[in-house]
Amino acid sequence: MGGVAFVMLSGMSGGGAARAAHVSALAALALVLAASLTDYLDGAAARRAKRLTADTAAGAAAPGDGFGRWIDAFADFFLFLCILGALTRSGLAQAWLFALFVAREATMYLIIRPASVRLGLDHGARLSGKIKTVLQYTGVIGLLALLSLPAQHALPADVVERVILVTLTVLVSASLVSLYWYLRPLCGAWPEPQRGLPQQLLAVLLAFAVLQVVLYRTLAPSSAIWGPFAIGVVVYHALIGGFLFWRHDEFTPLEPPPHRRTARLTLPNALTLLRLSSIPTLAVLWGHGPRDGAMPALVAATAAIFLTDLLDGALARRRGQVTTMGGYLDSGSDYLALLALAGLLAARGIMPAWLAALLIVRLVLNTIAVAVIKIRRRGYTPRPTTWGKISVAAAMVLITAELLVHATAAPHPPAPGIAGIMQIAELAVAAILAISLADKARYFLRALNGSP
């Protein structure tokens, strides 16, 4: 029903005064009323089935009970997502409200629910979630009823827009507040040596997501659309958060100092997360270019983010804070940065397409090889090779140089001398990548054969 409601409401314009908009809102209202009825009926049927099962099987859960919880919550979320998205697309709702709603739901479905499943907690709806759902249905029905009024009874457009803004602000705020009652038991059930880690992760991810939106709004040209970017940032950080929560046990230091054996978000890992958080933003900004006069700031921001690649590992080793998670994040951020920027430079004709393809093949094959090794040899952690480190470092230096040359020479091509130096550097990096590929193939075969 959500997809149908989205199509019906997407063509509406401010105030909903036109007859087509009135009919669309009326049809969407009928759909939402039907959806609210089915939401009540399926819940009642599930509770009745559970009672019957409990009577006959000593309290066992009804068949499909776990799936029913997931699909019921997802159906409610998807319906409201489609309606709010349609209102935003029609200009009747603010894009920031839609971004906040996506942030709430991404946190729930990509972080909280998977982590609850892993910790063995009840991941079903809580009272706060049920209240939130009732408020959403009530608010949406009221708004659609308002938009479906015929032209002769319709309120002025500015009044309708204010009512929509206030109503959706209340509904989205209620959704955000309801997360507290899901996060509290999750944090309370966290393993004792890692107490405080989930709060640290959530706070840092939220801060980094806000930082990316601010960076984009500050450096992007005025014509850039920030709504889709903000939504992408939210989903991207929720995916990172889901991975961090799922693999939370790998935050424990491998060789912790005697006075610190608990897992927590260390400064080196935070620096790596900052780099991983910033890569899509930098790629987008370099892709369509910054606003007038902001190129030096973009260059400085890019240099500062890349500098964290030199600091995080050194700090971790010096402070005894080397972790398995830090290795994953460091490799992931390096690979994502190289893939995104190499593809971008090749698309803009700054880097030769064959070199970008060679780099991408090297990174993808290495990722596949590591996954195969971990599957075939459980408990074995693949180690980076010397040529692997050299190839990644050389590619990073080359891409940084390409960006700097492009930034200083634009809008004109670089001078012949500089262009010649860059061609030599590209050939050198290509040779290093080829050697690294051969070295990785040798390491892969040795690892599969059981060699250390």
Describe the structure in your own words.
With 452 residues, the protein is an all-alpha fold. Helix content is 76%, strand content 0%. The chain contains 15 helices and no strands. Helix 4 (95-118) packs parallel to helix 6, helix 10 runs antiparallel to helix 11 and helix 14 (386-409) packs antiparallel against helix 15. The protein is globular, with a radius of gyration of 26 Å. It starts with a helix and ends with a helix.
Key descriptive features of the protein:
452 residues, globular, mainly alpha, single chain
Radius of gyration, in Å, reads 26 Å
Compute the number of strand runs: 0
Mean pLDDT over all positions = 80
Order of helices and strands: HHHHHHHHHHHHHHH
Q: Low-confidence parts, pLDDT < 50 over ≥5 residues?
A: 13-20, 52-64
Distance between the first and last residues' Cα: 56 Å
- DSSP strand (E) fraction? under 5%
Helix content: over 70%
What's the shape? Answer: globular
Tell me the structural class: mainly alpha
Q: Count of helices? A: 15
Largest β sheet strand count, sense and barrel closure: none
